[in-house]
């Protein structure tokens, strides 16, 4: 059986744990399973209740494992872009074996040498990326395997994050009895999926990651991640008045924002769009109620982001790319024209993960696959033996049993005679 490349990516959000399991096949990612397990224990990207987070991770992994028929043993873990520091490294690699030909171990040698840099006691290396190779005076992002030269230069960015945050997130995964395959900054993973690095070659890109309790703004320029800042206001601030007035749960408020009102006040009538019984009292909410309680705060959020990035916009051609769970709120798409520079939302288009909440997790899998060109790590996320047994069982049912559609159809036709 050909080796299957199955990877699981885990993101610990402020109110849930997201797990995406996918198979890489011929550079394409096929989504096998997604899990969104309600939880908590996270405030402003910091772990506050470890037990709650660990329980949510365990449930997400167990549910996905049961559905796939094999245990998930390792995950790619998203790390919040908190206290991010970028360090550029240029490593000169000499080909001293007499061949004058670039081989993989030469690239691995330069890569490992760059990783030895230490940025500080309170920082931990999370990503090494944006790699360029300069061979015979020509720069390229493509691996220079087989090129003839006496030496070449590797230019790469090392991205560090707050040490305590990284350790706290990693500890939760390990307490859930999972191994960490690799870690990745959430902003970096999101940029991988949304093709932000490519867009930032000749302009500034401000990536806007909108979550429930915060917004992370990440600046990209010259194809590199430059800086991350966090604004302590997420989409929950938009429905705060609505929640206080009608005593609704967060999930109900998000659903109302997500689908049931428009940015045009004329389209929000007094027809009831939501009914719920709370403590014996019937609560009725109209589209006009949602608009009146939420719309002005949404406009204010756009102004806050624009004001925060004003100096960047003045400095040159700028574009906003908005994603994260908040981009699943459809009416937000109508507000893109209010930013002080061109703006567009991004939602993954993979079957099975067509929600902006999965942008980071999907991007982590692509990032892992990209860095494997150098690292050549053969580990996958699931138990290999169990995975093979599961595939063989499925194939057997499809071939011999009632699992095949053709056989089912034939049996139906024969039974009607």
UniProtKB/TrEMBL annotation:
Residues 7-194 form the SHS2 domain. It comes from the Bacteria. GO terms for biological process: cell division. One of its GO terms (cellular component) is cytoplasmic side of plasma membrane. This is SHS2 domain-containing protein. It comes from Candidatus Merdibacter merdavium.
């Amino acid at each position: 059986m050909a080796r299957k490349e199955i990877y699981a990516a885990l993101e610990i959000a402020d109110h849930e744990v997201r797990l995406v399991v996918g198979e890489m096949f011929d550079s394409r990612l096929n989504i096998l399973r997604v899990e969104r397990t309600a939880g908590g224990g996270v405030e402003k990207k910091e772990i506050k209740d470890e037990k709650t987070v660990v329980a949510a991770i365990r449930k997400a992994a167990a549910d996905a494992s049961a559905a796939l028929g094999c245990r998930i043993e390792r995950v790619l873990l998203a790390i919040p872009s908190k206290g991010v520091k970028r360090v550029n490294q240029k490593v000169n690699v000499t080909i001293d074996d007499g061949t004058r030909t670039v081989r993989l171990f030469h690239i691995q040698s330069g890569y490992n040498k760059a990783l030895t840099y230490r940025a500080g006691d309170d920082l931990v290396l999370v990503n090494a990326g944006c790699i360029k190779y300069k061979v015979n005076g020509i720069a390229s992002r493509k691996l220079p395997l087989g090129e003839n030269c006496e030496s070449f230069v590797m230019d790469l960015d090392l991205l560090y994050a707050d040490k305590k945050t990284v350790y706290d997130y990693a500890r939760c995964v390990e307490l859930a009895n999972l191994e960490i395959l690799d870690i990745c900054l959430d902003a970096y993973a999101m940029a991988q999926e949304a093709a932000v690095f490519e867009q930032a070659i000749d302009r500034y890109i401000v990536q806007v990651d909108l979550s429930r309790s915060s917004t992370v703004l990440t600046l990209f320029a010259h194809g590199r991640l430059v800086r991350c800042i966090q604004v302590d206001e997420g989409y929950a601030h938009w429905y705060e008045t609505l929640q206080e007035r009608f005593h609704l749960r967060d999930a109900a408020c998000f659903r109302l924002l997500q689908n049931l009102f428009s940015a045009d006040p004329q389209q929000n009538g007094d027809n009831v769009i939501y009914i719920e019984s709370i403590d014996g009292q019937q609560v009725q909410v109209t589209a006009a109620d949602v608009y009146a309680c939420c719309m002005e705060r949404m406009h204010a959020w756009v102004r806050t982001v624009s004001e925060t990035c004003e100096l960047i916009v003045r400095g040159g051609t700028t574009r906003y790319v908005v994603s994260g769970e908040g981009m699943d709120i459809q009416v937000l798409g109508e507000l893109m024209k209010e930013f002080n520079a061109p703006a567009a939302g991004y939602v993954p288009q993979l079957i099975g993960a067509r929600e902006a909440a999965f942008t980071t997790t999907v991007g982590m899998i692509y990032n892992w696959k990209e860095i494997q060109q150098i690292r050549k790590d053969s580990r996958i996320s699931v138990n290999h033996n169990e995975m093979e047994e599961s595939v063989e069982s499925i194939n057997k049912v499809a071939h011999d049993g009632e699992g095949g559609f053709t056989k089912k159809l034939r049996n139906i036709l024969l039974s009607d005679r």
